[in-house]
Sequence to fold (321 residues):
Amino acid sequence: MSNLDRRPTPQELGGLEQTPAGPVLDLLPGKEVLLGESTRVRRLLPTLGRRLVGAWAFVDHYGPDDVTSSPGMQVAPHPHTGLQTVSWLLDGEIHHRDSIGSDVLFGPGQLALMTAGHGIAHSEQSPAVHPRFLHGAQLWVVLPDGSRDTAPAFEHHATLPGFTSDGVTATVLMGSFGGATSPGTAYTPLVGVDLALDAGADVEVSLDPDFEHGILAASGSATVEGTPLAHGTMAYLGTGRRTLRLRADEPAKLLLLGGEPFEERIVMWWNFVGRSGEEIADYATSWTEHERFGEVTGFEGIRIEAPPLPPLPLVPRGRVR
Fold:
């Protein structure tokens, strides 16, 4: 998934100084942006309220959109460095191609995990003949300094572990939860879980108190610790929680994201994660000059060019505004 903002704001993130020492419940304001040719998404992280939840640095939620008479998602080849993309579908199909030769069609309940590392390019498209609805989330995880220059890789896991108990079905995308561990490769202590709540569910799930967490209402709506969470909105939960109470009057799907607060300071601009403005400029130049990232074969169309670099130096902004 690409950040297609033509004037992306450079951000220096990370550090523990603005991580709450205990539980909070803050609703995060999102904004609607256009992705590719026809897909509108709700960008929930980074946002005015927060830029990181553990190593999770980017959350786009889209749909459900009726794409019967449209091409659906059409995101041309674009680059990434220093991060992992975690693609999660609730409805629809996506065709992933990348510059290391991956060519995969994935659907709901399947994990598409791309590790950009040193550098990779990829495209994402709804197939020509596709399901009626498109609905899902695209997530980025920052790679720590010791792993950020790793060789690029792509993983497709068609089945994932989980459990069902007391009106909730958990599917573990990343990390471990409730005794189940995802096969997805993680480079920092984190967790990502799809929680499907039955109508009338009133459940309490266990959390790691050393993690900070956020939770997204991906489908339907629910109540989180007594606070309503509407469809397409996200709440930041802070640290120190051992349990989380969830209620739903209707069937709902929540996406729980968490991890140890990310200590390193990073710079995130466009589709790149680095450690300085100079690194980011080098990445942009490499993409423009067709270096470092390779080429995506099989995509018919023009790749996405890097937007102009900002005229001013990067300004440290911390974890929150």
